[in-house]
Amino acid sequence: MMEFSGLLLLAVFFFLLALNVPISFSIGLATLVTMLYSIDFIPAATTIAQRLAGGINSFALLAIPFFVLSGLIMGQGGIARRLIECAMALIGMLPGGLALVNVMSCTLFGAISGSAVAATSAIGSFMIPQMEKKGYDKNFAAALTGAAATTGMLIPPSNILIIYAIASGGVSIAALFVAGYLPGIMVALALMLVCAGYAKIKGYPTEDRLPLKIVAEKVLAAVPSLLLIFIVIGGIIAGVFTATEAGAIAVIYSLILSVFFYREVAMKQLPGILLKSAETTAIVMLLIGASSAMSWILSYENIPQTISEFLLQLSNNPFLILLIINLTLIVVGAFMDMTPAVLIFTPIFLPVATELGMSPLHFGIMIVLNLSIGLCSPPVGSVLFVSCAVAKTSIEKIIRPLMPLYIAMFIVLMLVTYIPGISEWLPKFFGLL
Q: By CB neighbour count within 10 A (0-12 exposed, 13-18 middle, 19+ buried), where does 97 fall?
């Protein structure tokens, strides 16, 4: 029964996805069908209702609507332009300057907004035309923007790290936030190396070196925006407030900055921003509730244990098993968004990882980095669609220039997977692990 239940769950789930049923409904219906097979109707329906409600009944999840709202406010608050000007002043004169500026701007904006799609749209709408005007290949510019925007998923404040903390059953959000810094920066640096090599081969021009006074002005203009990261993380590390309280503070800070300091967001725009925030939060919460029900049936049918035993019997080599998990997640990330993928596959693969001696925190950074690559992977990578729309090109045309960037990100993924210190050093240094 156990094996058939697992196959039934996966078969129904992927069948509904193939029919283009929304993923939250696909998860819920697949869970219901499996429960009806395994349990009587009334207990099954009652259990689903309880798990849907219980899955979102968490204080830590209150941080998500706050960070979503602050990200939307910052996204319309003129932050992108100031970050681009700051990056241009600092590194625009280096080989491949505009490409490097693109990576740095996407990384900073993605971290501030917490959204790879927002970073792709905000930075790409300015940088892709500028790169094309300077002679850069438009398809390379689009691929680079999509790849660079994913770094914000690792650099806090990151909603997906909060979701992993819930899915894993109690990993510290503060520790995850701090752990994401080094891997996120490593991805950005790896992409910059590719850009420098690409620019040298193609002979792309560098930008003029700006006077020191102008550099200082551009950096100072971006400091108020960047302070959000230090306020949120600094307060959490110092124990001044929790991640949820940090989200509320981020909303207040972003409102003051965007409405009163930069004056880029009018008061009449706030109702629309609040509505968009509520819509985004509702989608995320529905996914979390449905995935909680699926996680329960997975546990009830001992499916994670079965997969764990299968993988451990397949080989006693931790290197090979972790490689299999990574390759599986890369395929999953190419077809599924990050939130449901984290919620579904964390309870399946985390027991395997811990059996191999990997800490839940280390695994969390690995899975988020892995699925971040999926955001810029065809055919379903959401940031690719946005990047192509901004560049007015097609996914087919950006696959070739995307490959060197993809390889660079994969190399970082392997380093993060097999070197625990990359993820764990900072949390240990700050006493969070």
A: buried
Domain layout of the chain by residue ranges: 2-429
Low-confidence spans in the chain with pLDDT less than 50 = 1-2
Phi/psi zone of residue 204: left (φ > 0), alpha (ψ -120 to 50 degrees), beta?
beta
User: DSSP characters for 90-153?
Assistant: HHTTSTTHHHHHHHHHHHHHHHHH--HHHHHHHHHHHHHHHHHHTT--HHHHHHHHHHHHGGGG
**What 3-state class would DSSP assign to 206?**
coil
Q: Can you give the pLDDT at residue 3?
A: 58
What percentage of the chain reaches a pLDDT higher than 90? Answer: 19
Q: How far apart, in whole angstroms, are the C-alpha atoms of residue 386 and residue 55?
A: 31
Q: What is the dihedral of CA 125, 130, 132, 136, to 10 degrees?
A: -120
What CA–CA distance (Å, rounded) separates 175 from 428?
A: 9
Angle at 276 between CA 295 and CA 109, to 5 degrees: 85
Would you state the pLDDT for residue 1? 43
Distance (Å, whole) CA 284 – CA 278: 10
| 287-340 residue pLDDT tens | 888 888 887 777 777 777 777 778 878 777 889 999 999 998 988 888 777 888
Residue 93: is it exposed, middle or buried by C-beta count within 10 angstroms (0-12/13-18/19+)?
A: middle
